[in-house]
Design brief:
- Helices cover 49% and strands 16% of the residues.
- It is α+β, with helices and mostly antiparallel strands.
- Helix 4 runs antiparallel to helix 5 and helix 6 (202-238) runs antiparallel to helix 9 (321-329).
- The chain starts with a helix and ends with a helix.
- It is globular, with a radius of gyration of 21 Å.
- The strands form three sheets. It has a four-stranded mixed beta sheet. Strands 2-3-7-6 form a four-stranded antiparallel beta sheet, with no helix packed on it.
- The longest helix is centred in the middle third of the chain and has 37 residues, at 202-238.
- It has helices spanning 2-7, 12-17, 39-52, 54-73, 76-87, 202-238, 250-278, 284-309, 321-329, 338-350, and strands at residues 93-96, 112-116, 119-130, 137-143, 152-158, 164-166, 180-191, 195-196, 240-241, 244-245.
- Strand 4 (137-143) and strand 5 (152-158) form a beta hairpin.
Length: 353
Amino acid sequence: MQTWDLTEEFPVETIKRSAELGFGGLFVSPDYGGLSLPRHDGSIIFEALSQGCVTTASYITIHNMVNAMIDTFGTETQREKYCPDLSSMEKLASYCLTEPGSGSDAAALVTSARKEGSKYIVNGSKAFISGAGATDLLVVMTRTGGKGPKGVSALIIDTDTPGISYGQKEKKIGWNNQPTCVVNFDDVEVPCDNLLGSEGQGFNLAMHGLNGGRINIASCSLGAAQQCLEDVLHYTNDRKAFNQPLNANQHVQFKLAEMATELTTARLIVRQAAKSLDAKEPNAVALCAMCKLYATERLFKVCDDALQLHGGYGYLKSYPVQQFWRDSRVHRILEGTSEVMHMLVARDLLKHL
């Protein structure tokens, strides 16, 4: 984890080896190489993986989101063509929604897909794309119709298609061992057969994917916080100050108790949201938003408290706590910012009035 972070290495071979355990198609039908697991089980897996490396686990969640979207909404031909290679991780995938001018306001995207005969001509740019430049397949949200969400359609695009180019790799605070950059589309020709779902359905598909994605990212925050708590328990027991271990101080004990309580509470809400999404409960979208909001906010604070209890050592790159802190910070932004999660929860509450 620390070596990958320092060298900014995208550990493709390690990621592909995880497919041997089924981690390339966690939510995909066994007919296409997947495990067809419930979201609850996926949450447990991503939490455990994130204790080893948050950044790598987070990319695997994105790959799984794309694979599951194709398995859920794709035609039989699309599923046969793409899902087996994604499940085996013979091919890796990226999800392309955000643009330089539209982040939280995703329905304002402008990347266009103009239909010409049996193909779409795609023009535009996508920003902050995880894995960009190192993946083989993109699911891209494009504008095929008028303004707003009903004019958005999803296309499956192979990255070796002429007209695709990439901006420079972004320099980030965390997630360093996962490339992130702009993806440009310049008159990219995409067969109409690569339309995922129907025209105008893309925004709904994107939001459907993000519901599961929010559980997955919240689960990655669980893993980061769990490892930080384990590390700080050992550190405060071993570190001596004023002739006694740090954890002999009541203030430190109370802080550790608060961290453990936040972690347990967050885990419960994440698992509940996962069960709700599996059961297709009416409030599943709100619960997915709640779990991401609560887990990513509160568990980043757990990582921050762990770093603080490490003192100056927590600020050294030789101590992993700082990397968990850096890598989990972005979880409050991607897959829907905390502010958007507030909006979704409030909207669900007010619709019942």
